[in-house]
Design brief:
Elements (H helix, E strand, L loop, with lengths): L1 E5 L2 E8 L12 E8 L6 E6 L10 E9 L4 E9 L2 E2 L3 E5 L34 E5 L24 E5 L4
Antiparallel strand pairs: 1-2, 2-5, 3-4, 3-6, 6-7, 6-8, 9-10
Pfam families: MAM
Protein name: MAM domain containing glycosylphosphatidylinositol anchor 2
Length: 164
């Protein structure tokens, strides 16, 4: 989800889930890294986790003061009492609204264009959109939450295949 607060600035609501929190040590915090695409220096901040993360729980963190039309790399790393887990990186790109008169732009996984998401063909993996109701349990039995944040099996989530 993306929104605009001022003419040259936008914000992004970063959302994620911990697929199977009981399979790993309790996550105490996440290290958030952000940098403008093409730059070397990362800005880092720790996001504290209060209590245990539940399976499928939607975690949200708002990224603010992003400069238009700059793209940003966002890195998220879970931290347990034993150290850091595997990081995930995504690129956030600003796209002007189709109707420039709109004050805010909201989107989600349920939208057909998935928030103007584009697949990066130069990386080593592909993101897949799926819902609990439509997933093929033969090929992806342990992928994603059992329900979306509203409790429905119809909501969508994105995942990458990492078991091969």
């Amino acid at each position: 989800p993306l929104w605009q607060n001022r003419p040259r600035v936008y914000s992004y609501s970063l959302q994620w889930t911990q697929m199977n929190p009981d399979a790993v040590d309790r996550i105490l915090a996440y290290r958030l890294g952000i940098r403008q695409a093409g730059q070397q220096r990362w800005w880092e901040q720790e996001i504290t986790v209060n209590g245990n993360i539940q399976k499928g729980e939607l975690i949200t963190y708002n990224l603010t003061e992003l400069i238009k039309p700059e793209a940003y790399e966002v890195r998220l790393t879970p931290i347990t009492r034993f150290g850091e887990g595997d990081s995930t990186i995504r690129v956030i790109k600003y796209s002007a609204p189709v109707n420039p008169h709109l004050r805010e732009f909201h989107c989600g996984f349920e939208d057909g264009n998935i928030c103007l998401f584009t697949q990066d063909d130069t990386d080593n993996f592909d993101w897949t959109k799926q819902s609990t109701a439509t997933r093929d349990t033969k090929y992806t039995p342990n992928t994603g939450p059992n329900a979306d944040r509203t409790g429905s099996k119809e909501g969508f989530y994105m995942y990458i295949e990492t078991s091969r």
